[in-house]
Write a structure and sequence with these properties.
Layout (H helix, E strand, L loop, with lengths): L1 E5 L20 E2 L2 E2 L2 H9 L4 E6 L4 H8 L8 E6 L8 H5 L1 H4 L4 E5 L2 E5 L2 H15 L2 E7 L7 E5 L5 E6 L8 E3 L2 E4 L3 H7 L10 H10 L3 E6 L3 E5 L3 H18 L6 H7 L5 H8 L6 H10 L5
Parallel strand pairs: 1-4, 1-6, 4-5, 8-13
Antiparallel strand pairs: 2-3, 6-12, 7-14, 8-11, 8-12, 9-10
Helix pairs in contact: 10-11
Function: Catalyzes the formation of dTDP-glucose, from dTTP and glucose 1-phosphate, as well as its pyrophosphorolysis.
InterPro entries: G1P_thy_trans_s, NTP_transferase_dom, Nucleotide-diphossugar_trans
Keywords: Magnesium, Metal-binding, Nucleotidyltransferase, Transferase
Length: 294
Amino acid sequence: MKAVILVGGSGTRLYPVTQVINKHLLPLYNKPMIYYPLSLAMLIKIREVIFVINPEDEPLYKKIFNHGEKLGMKIDWVIQEKPKGIAEGLILAEPYIKNDCVLYLLGDNIFFGHDLPKVMESAKKEVEEKGGAFVFGYYVSDPERFGIVEFDKEGRVLSIEEKPKRPKSNYAVVGMYFYDKKAVEIAKSIKPSGRGELEITSINNEYLKRGELKVKLLGRGFAWFDAGTHDSFLEAGEFVATIEKKTGLMIGCIEEIAYRNGWITKEELLELAKPLKKTEYGKYLEKLAMGEIL
């Protein structure tokens, strides 16, 4: 399985700050927002990642990640000249996905929860072994803003509706999607919505129509933020800060995950910490390398 992370778009909901820099490179507490979705892929041992980026952001992603060598990964990117909907990212990434299953992530979605990696591993295994699509639902108070899942009395999925005026439930489909090898072809077959966009909901509904969609609800033990507005961006940053200060452990620390996965050595980790030695982030990496953080 490969991971595709959508980090393009104009970030209009975060204007005026995003007139200068792409929102996914903004600091969410103590690290760029892009670190958080990337860390999710890494947590389930996905080493090949493709970013879908804006043309003007290419030098920045190259500067931050190059092609993933420092993390023991293979990172590449594809240019999205003009946003045409979330589903377009899969089409653009086709040359890299090839005939693989894919974890598709939205770059401004932040996740945290007990056993989250185990939940993701289970979804990954389900899709790789049985095919289909596996997505997640989360209870929201403002369902008009999201793709909303409708269930019957037995909990079976009946429909998914994008930004409904009259929501049929309060469960939003969050920005983390596991798809089998058919995802790109399905993305190519869907038509633009009334908003003129290729909706990810259209892909999910096609899998539902085929009887190949699974939806798992994330309960109260999980946190999810769609950090695309000023308020949600601030809330996500405050959440990360609180957890890290309480536990002394970092969320979304990509160097730590690469080290724990065995993708980089202790010496390589210390080398990554060197230019950051005056920061709390650098000190954290040094402590990790010296075995002071278990």
